[in-house]
Amino acid sequence: MSWTEITVLVEQAKTGDREAYGELVARFQSSVYAMALSRVRDPLEAQELAQDVFVHAMRKLPQLRDPRCFAGWLRRITARMAINRLTRRGPLFGADTEVLDAVEARTRTAEEQFAVGEAVDQLKEGLAELKPLDRQTLEAFYIRGRSLKQIAREFAVPTGTVKRRLHVARLRLKEVLEGIDPSLAERFATDGAELAAV
């Protein structure tokens, strides 16, 4: 899906088109979840946070002046709501042993563990084949969790340049991954959240 199509969906969603908003949720769900997980460090809480972000965004969507800013606007909402959630929750120092005993343990099978390790190795291989600037930009955003503004300061460039570099670097990485593993390239193409596992 192109950014032009996303802009059209945002415009439609602003008029109350729930199907268009559903398409936006499907498109950005993985990236919002990945960002939420990087902030709250708990899969279930990240899932709840992602749902809250989309509910909040749906209510506030008419206030978004420029539909082209939807992705960044969604990232800011996610960051702000994650901070609010962490502030309300306070520090976690442990849990009741009774609560922990009641939680069903979930571990990866050997096959799942192998598949995850293989995907991570392939992503690292793909990143290694990129030019240094492309690799550094992707690593800063997806692996180290830097915001666009932080990356712009780090590289001493405008935020728009960072956005362009991210877009181009993702396309280049997708091309490299297609030569390594087409299924991984397809998963990565949806939103790039796979990089967070590296």
Automatic annotation (TrEMBL):
Example GO molecular function: DNA binding
Example GO biological process: DNA-templated transcription initiation
InterPro entries assigned: RNA_pol_sigma-70-like, RNA_pol_sigma-70_dom, RNA_pol_sigma70_r2, RNA_pol_sigma70_r4, RNA_pol_sigma_r2, RNA_pol_sigma_r3/r4-like, WH-like_DNA-bd_sf
Origin: domain of life: Bacteria
Pfam families: Sigma70_r2, Sigma70_r4
UniProtKB keywords: DNA-binding, Sigma factor, Transcription, Transcription regulation
Keyword Ribosomal protein: no
Transcription keyword on record: yes
Boundaries of every RNA polymerase sigma-70 region domain copy: 24-89, 127-175
NCBIfam families listed in its UniProt record: sigma70-ECF
Family: Belongs to the sigma-70 factor family. ECF subfamily.
Protein name per its UniProtKB record: ECF RNA polymerase sigma factor SigW
Organism name: Gemmata massiliana
Lineage: Bacteria, Pseudomonadati, Planctomycetota, Planctomycetia, Gemmatales
